[in-house]
Amino acid sequence: MVSSVLRSLRGLRPANSPASYQKFASRSPIRRPWQCRSIYTSPESQPFADTEKPYYITTPIFYVNAAPHIGHLYTMVLCDVLKRYQQLQGKSAFLSTGTDEHGMKIQQAAAKEAVTPKELVDNNSQKFLKLAHEGGISQDTFIRTTNQQHKTAVSHFWTQLKNGLPKRLGLYKSTHKGWYSVSDECFYPEDLIEPSLEPQTGKKIMVSSETGSMVEWVEEETWFFPLTKYKEQLLKFYDENPGWIQPESKMKEVRIWVENHLEDLSVTRPAARLSWGIRDPEDPKHTIYVWVDALINYLTVAGYGDKWHLKEENMGIWPADLQVVGKDIIRFHAVYWPALLMALDLPLPKKILCHNHWTMSNRKMSKSVGNVVNPFFAIQRWGTDPLRYFLMRNGSLSKDTSYSNDLIEMVYLKELQANIGNLYYRICRPKSSSKWSTTDAIESYFAGEFKKNEHMVDLSDPRCNYSSLEPHIDGVLAVYKREMDNNNPAGAINEIFCLLRETNRYVSDTEPWNITKKTDVPEFRVVLNWVVFNSIEALRVAGILLQPIMPTKAGRLLDELNVKPERRTIQWAVRGTDDSYGFSPTDLGVMEKVQSWNTIFPPTPAATHSDPEVLDILGGIVENPTKNRLNKMSEWIAMEARLGEIDTAISTPRVLLVPYEPHHVLKYHGWMQDPDIQEATASEPLSLEEEYSNQISWRAASDKLTFIVCLPLSTDAAAPPTLIRGDTLHDSADHMVGDVNFFLHEYDPDEYEYDDDDGEHDDGFDSSDEERDGWLVGEVDIMIAERASRGRGMGKAAVCALLVYIQRHVRGLLAEGDARRGSTSSSIISSASSATATTDADWLDVNLAGRGERALKGLIVRIKEGNEDSRALFQKLGFRQQGEVNYFGEIKMALDLDALLEQEWWASALEEYHEVRYEPPSVGETGAIGP
C-alpha cells in the first residue's frame, strides 16, 4: 500500500515546483514505528526559501490518554483527502498531524496504569502513528509535544507573551477561582455550570452544560492571559472574515460565545498539582496550560522558535491554509488560538473547518457503554480505501453521524463493488476477449470516426443514443471542483457516483454485447467503439477524481486501464484528453479470468460478523457474492439512473419537494385531522399507527410517487446544495406545507370516455383507438395543508416541479413499475435520459403502444366541483375539463403529454428545476445541510 501511495504522490507532484517543496510529494508518508522520530521534517526544507508556499493543512494533535477511535481516523482522512486534492491540481501541499502528550489527564491515566507519563505517551503515540499508516495518511510531519523542538517553540512563545507585550496586553499573575474540568482540561464560567447526578452513585455533582463533564471548584494562583482585552479585535476579525469558520453555524456559535462568555484565561497550573507538562522557564512552580502548549504545535511544524521568531522573517509554511478540528475543540481554535496569535502579531490561519462527531446507533460513542469503534478492526474488516470512502461519503460538518457496519456493507456492495468494480469488468473484461478492444475504441475517437457516424444516433431510443453519456462526463469535473474547493468530499463523491451510475445505465441501454453481433458492418464496429470509449472514459475520469479519497484503489483502477502516471492529475479528468491508455484483448495476461478475491473490490465479511469472527474469516474463506448478484446490482443502478435518484429532492425558488419519510408522518397526521382537509380530499381520519403503515406502503408502491412540499431552500446560497439529509431544518415539521402525488393507472376507455358537445366519444386525449393498447395514465394530486402557505403560488410551483420530474424520468418510472409488478412488457419512452428529455419535444412516442410496449399517454386530475382555486390552477397549466361532475362531486381534467412541453409555463419551470440528492435519516447521518 505504501508503494502505491508513493507512486500516486509522485505522479501528482508539480513538475515545476521548487525542489524543497518536491520533497513533500516524494517523501514516504510514514516511517516504520521503530524508525520514528518525534517530528518528520527535512531540515533543509525548513524554513522555505522559495516564494511559493505549500498548502499547509493540519489535523488537531490527538490526546494520548487512550487508544485511537474511529473519529480520530475520520479527521486524519478528511485532512489527507483535502491535501491530496491540492496535489491532484498540481500544487504543493503539506499535512501535519501528531499527538498531544501533556496535561492532567495524562498524569492521572499513567498513575492509574502504574506507569510513568513518558511510558504512557510513548506507547499511545505509536498507536496513532500506526493508525495514520494503516489509514493511508500521507502526512509530512508527525509532531509530538514531548519533543524538544516543540518545547523550545513553546518556551519562546511564552516568553514573548510574558515579556514582549505592553503590560495590559501581556500575561499577569493572579488568584484564579472557578469551575475546572479535568476531562476537558479547561475552566468554565458560572453560567455554563449546572447540577447533575453521578450515574453510578447518585451523588450530586456539578457539570459543564456544554459537555456534561464533571467540574470541581478550584482556587489557585496562576498566570493569566488577558483574553478580554482582545474581545473587540476578535469580533472585528470575525466581521471582516465571515467565512473563516466552516460551517457558518459554527461561526455564529463562536461569535455568540465571545460576545457573552469571554473571560481572562488561566494559562498555568501549579506544578505541585500538575507536574507533567512544560514549565514556565522563568517561574518553574507553574506548568504551562496544556492547550497553550498544544496550539503552538502548528507553529513548531512551521519552524517557529528554531528557524524564525517574528513575522518579519521567513515564516516557512505559516500561516496554515486550513486547520481541521472537531466540534468539541472549536473554542480553543477559534477563540484562544487567534487571540494568542494576535498578541504576538502573527498571521492567523486562513480557515478553520469544524466537523461533527460519529455515533453508534445514534448514541455517542463511549467506552463505558462499549460502543466505541476500533479503527484498526474497521480497516481489517473493510480495507483502508473502502473505509476512507465511507467516512468521506457519510461524514458531516453539521450533525453527528451514525456509524454502522450495515451501512458500510450497503455502500461497499452498491457503490464500490457494483458501480465501480463490476462496471470495470463488464467493459474492460468482457466474457469473450475478442468482443472489443479499448485501444481500438480510443483510436476510433481520436480518428474522428464517431462524428462521421452521428447519423446512427437516435435520441428517441436509448439503445441507439450513443452520445447520452457524454454530457455527464463533461459536467462532472466542474461540480467535483466546486465541492472539493468547499471542503465537501461528500458532495464530490456524490457527483462521481452519479457519473458511474449513469455509465451503468448507458451500458445497459446500449448493450454493446449485442452490437458485437453486427460488427461485420463497418458502421456498427464504429458504434461499438463509441460505446466502449464513452464507458472507459467515464471510468478513467472517475478514477482520476477518486485518487484523493481512495488512493490505492483508484490507483489500481487507473493501472488496470493502463493510464500513465503522469496523466493522472486533474487537467486529465476531461473527456478526450488522453490518447495513450487502454489495451488490446491480445495483450498477454490482460484477459485472463479474474478470481473474485483478486478484483478491485473483492468480497468482504458480512456486516453481521463480529470483529473476532472477521479476523478468522479474513484468514480463510470470505463470503463470495456471485457474478449474477453484482450484475443484478449493476442493473438496479442503471434503473436508478433512468428513474433519477431513488431518494431525490427537488428544489425550486418557491418550494422544496422531498420524499415522504417516517419523520414527516406526525405532521401529516395532524393535517389529516382537519375536517376541511378531510372534506377536500375525500379522506377518512386514520390513527397515527395507520398513518405510519400508509407511509411505508406509499414509499414501496410501484404505482405511486409522493413528495412532501416544504418551504424553499434559502436563496442566499452561492450554489445549490448537492445533498440534503432528512430530518434537518429544510424538511422539518416547521417547514412542511403539504404534499403532491402522482399515481399510475392502466388506461380504461370506459373510465375516460364521455360524450362531447357533438355527441362523439372523447377521452380528453388526442389519439386513435388503435394507439391506446398499452397506455398508462398519470393522476396528479396536490394539497397545500398549511393555511398560511395558501395563495402564495406554492401549489402551482409544486405541480410544475412534479411534472418536470415526470417528464425527465418517465421511462424509469414505468420501468420500475414493471420490474416490481413482474411485467413481461418492456417500458420504453423516448426520453432515455434526463440529459436529452428536457430538450426533446418529441419525448413521447405513442406508436410504441400497441406493440406490447407501455407508454404514459396523459395526465389527469380530479377536483371537487366547488374548488375554484384548484380548477383555475390546473386550467393555467393546460389541463382541460372532461365531461360533467361525477357521482362523487368531482370534475376530471386532462392534459395530453404531447402538449405538456408546449405550455407557456414549461420553459421557466424547467429553468427553475434542480434535483438534489436526498438521504433519509435511516441512511447515514443527518444534517448535511442544516440551520
Automatic annotation (TrEMBL):
* Listed name of the protein: Methionine--tRNA ligase, mitochondrial
Q: What is its EC number?
A: 6.1.1.10
Molecular function GO terms recorded:
acyltransferase activity, transferring groups other than amino-acyl groups; ATP binding; methionine-tRNA ligase activity
Per the record, the domain of life is Eukaryota
Residues making up the signal peptide according to the UniProt record: none
Known Pfam families for this protein?
Acetyltransf_3 (PF13302), tRNA-synt_1g (PF09334)
What NCBIfam families does UniProt report for this protein, alphabetically? metG
Family listed = Belongs to the class-I aminoacyl-tRNA synthetase family.
* Listed SUPFAM superfamilies: Acyl-CoA N-acyltransferases (Nat), Anticodon-binding domain of a subclass of class I aminoacyl-tRNA synthetases, Nucleotidylyl transferase
Any Gene Ontology biological process: methionyl-tRNA aminoacylation
**Start and end residues of each N-acetyltransferase domain:** 654-880
Keywords carried by this UniProt record:
Aminoacyl-tRNA synthetase, ATP-binding, Ligase, Nucleotide-binding, Protein biosynthesis
Q: Which residues form the Methionyl/Leucyl tRNA synthetase domain?
A: 55-427
